[in-house]
Design goal:
The chain is α+β, with helices and mostly antiparallel strands. Helix content is about 50%, strand content about 10%. It has 20 helices and 11 strands. The structure holds adenosine-5'-triphosphate and magnesium ion (MG).
């Protein structure tokens, strides 16, 4: 068993080892390496206490990310590495935060506090894989996500782990260990204790998996997104799987049958960013979009006149996924072509502006905007080219207030 280690992470491990500490790669980077995928970040766990890590790398090379939890972020060769002291967590009386953490000397105790066996492995080039719970076999042979220890207890400690179970199942395309899956459903009310921010982070990762539908039981999702309709849910899930791995478009696919009001409430509860919520809500509101039978270019142009290009792209992917109608793909290509040629779809792109209207004798005020909108409509409907002379000529024929 050999892992090709990122050079920065190797340098951090090496420095800790030379100072006499034990240190390992841990968690996601070990899992991803075993699965044959490039890890996003390389986390390190160590016997060194945070003050020792700070002293070893120097304060200027370190960011004290979460000293009380034992985490120091170390800058090394242009990368950032989280270095966390071996620790155990005690007394999750609120179902989300440990009452306190204690630093320990043994990596195995640190691995035991982690959520799933596939996440509870550590690696050091000299010692090889430290895998006390059979994570490697679960990942590569049994192909399951399984809780470390007694599943119900682990979900009681931290309800977020219930959502993480499905997230890792979907991401790694693993089955769920039956006892773990049963406990997750039984304990699902624990999700109610978890902060909205943590829920959305995990839900977004679940929705970014290749085809997450199989790992999205209604009994769980209805707790996260109140307003979901059980009868419509199977169709929503099919649309989710048919969409590219875009969390916002997929969230809109889930919320569309609920309608804008319920969707707005669900989004509020989820506490995603304002921009994310606005985007999803726009998609839900527009999700009745139908093909008109007109030229795709014309219909695409009307969409681009009303909505941001990114929203148009998502909306057309959403409608294609919901209906399976190829016409939406044709609209999407037309919209892409219009963007490519920077075709005029907004007032700001018109070859005339407010000053031109004033020069024509229009009085300053709302009439200026109204005339520009009317000119835009001519261009969008392809009745006029976006050409200054042509537009001025047409504007002169309009009644000037
Ligand atoms: P990703 O590549 O998506 O970041 P990851 O495995 O690194 O995957 P993180 O959420 O970054 O996942 O967590 C890092 C590690 O910390 C996990 O692999 C796991 O060992 C542990 N961990 C994280 N959150 C929890 C939790 N809620 N309960 C128990 N262990 C956790
Ligand atoms: Mg991570």
């Amino acid at each position: 068993m050999h892992i090709a280690i990122d050079p920065g992470a190797a340098a951090v491990l090496d420095a800790l080892h030379r100072a006499g500490h034990r240190a390992y790669l841990v968690g996601g980077c070990v899992r991803d390496s075993l699965a044959g995928r490039a890890p996003q970040d390389w986390d390190i766990c160590t016997s060194a206490r945070p003050d020792q890590t700070l002293a070893l790398f120097g304060e200027t090379q370190c960011i004290p990310t979460g000293l009380q939890h034992g985490t120091v972020t170390v800058r090394q060769g242009g990368g950032l590495y989280e270095v966390t002291t071996f620790r155990v967590e005690k007394g999750y009386t609120d179902g989300r935060h440990p009452d306190h953490v204690a630093f320990v000397a043994d990596v195995k105790a640190d691995l035991a506090r982690r959520d799933f066996t596939i996440n509870a492995m550590a690696y050091d080039p000299a010692e090889g894989l430290i895998d006390p719970f059979g994570g490697r076999e679960d990942l590569l042979v049994r192909r399951v996500v399984r809780a470390v220890g007694e599943p119900a207890r682990r979900f009681e400690e931290d309800g977020l782990r219930i959502l993480r179970l499905y997230r890792f199942g979907a991401r790694e395309e693993l089955a769920l260990d039956p006892a773990t899956a049963r406990a997750a459903l039984q304990e699902r009310a624990r999700l109610g204790c978890v902060s909205a921010e943590r829920i959305w982070q995990e839900l977004a990762k679940l929705l970014a998996a290749r085809q997450p539908g199989r790992w999205m039981p209604f009994a769980i999702l209805e707790l996260l997104l109140p307003g979901l309709d059980g009868a419509q849910y199977p169709g929503s899930i099919r649309a989710v799987d048919a969409l590219p791995p875009d969390p916002l478009a997929r969230l809109a696919a889930l919320l569309a049958p609920a309608g804008p009001e319920k969707a707005a409430r669900a989004l509020e509860k989820l506490r995603c960013s304002r921009a994310e919520a606005a985007e999803v809500l726009a998609l839900v509101k527009e999700s009745g979009l139908a093909l008109t039978g007109e030229a795709p270019r014309l219909q695409a142009r009307r969409l681009l006149a009303r909505l941001d290009p990114g929203t148009v792209r998502r909306l057309l992917a959403l409608r294609q996924a919901q209906t399976g109608e190829k016409g939406f793909a044709a609209l999407a290509s037309a919209a892409a072509a219009l963007e490519q040629e920077q075709a005029c779809c907004r007032v700001g792109q018109l070859a005339v502006n407010g000053r031109d209207l004033l020069a024509l004798g229009v009085r300053p005020g709302p009439a200026v905007g109204r005339l520009l909108s009317a000119a835009l409509e001519q261009v969008v409907e392809e009745k006029l080219p976006n050409d200054r002379a042509a537009l001025l000529g047409w504007l002169r024929t309009q009644q000037i207030p």
